[in-house]
Amino acid sequence: MKAAVFLKWLSELVAVSYAAQIPLTSNSSLTTGIKTENLKDGAAEFKCFITPQFSALVNLTLEATKTPGLSLGIVQVVSHTNDVQTEFGTWGTMSGDGDEMMQETMFDIGSCSKAFLATAMGILMEDYAQGKNVTPLPDGLGSFAWKTKVQDLFPGDDSEWKLKDDWASQKVNIRDMLTHVSGLPRHDLSYGPSDALIDLVRKLRYLRPQFELREQ
Ligand SMILES: *[C@@H]1O[C@H](CO)[C@@H](O)[C@H](O)[C@H]1NC(C)=O
Ligand SMILES: *[C@@H]1O[C@H](CO)[C@@H](O)[C@H](O)[C@H]1NC(C)=O
């Protein structure tokens, strides 16, 4: 990665963690570490990314962006041998009292869940495509893919799935939802911590869209 590109990436990462992630708790004093699993002699060679130079760069970036702390995990996998190396690094502080950031410091997940969701969906689709997952799909649905319509996943007249806009309700597919082109704005006040998953789905029909499906 070129230095300028990397710096841009890092400062975005820092901006995200500063804006959206609130450290919660931690209980160990490990701050950096490298762990290698499954590695037979000479089977794979991993490069360490968290070098002293890298750490110095992170320090400078935290200072320049007035970010209190940052923690970073890097996972390297050799696909044909399944060798895994994880590296962890932490910098700065995790609380107003100046407690050090640690490997076990927990953060609110914030929008990182979006990436996990998209990845989990992709893995599930791949499992269906390769016949590893044989859980029956709803009647009439031959495959589960990005273009699968949500309505086909929740079929029937008494389906929980319904949007205020009928056209969108029928046509929205998985890709539309993950790329945020369903037409629905955030409606942040429409849900709360006590809601079950199904409550969130059932409320969708009452939420006013801001755009037509795929308009923006
Ligand atoms: C840290 O937390 C883990 C998981 O909650 C727990 O198993 C462990 O005993 C804790 N360690 C200390 C030193 O409190
Ligand atoms: C980064 O900053 C911390 C805290 O000031 C310091 O302990 C550490 O040595 C610095 N690391 C590098 C590589 O400069």
UniProtKB/TrEMBL annotation:
It comes from the Eukaryota. Keywords: Signal. Residues 1-19 form the signal peptide. SUPFAM superfamilies: beta-lactamase/transpeptidase-like. Residues 75-212 form the Beta-lactamase-related domain. The keyword Signal applies. This is Beta-lactamase-related domain-containing protein.
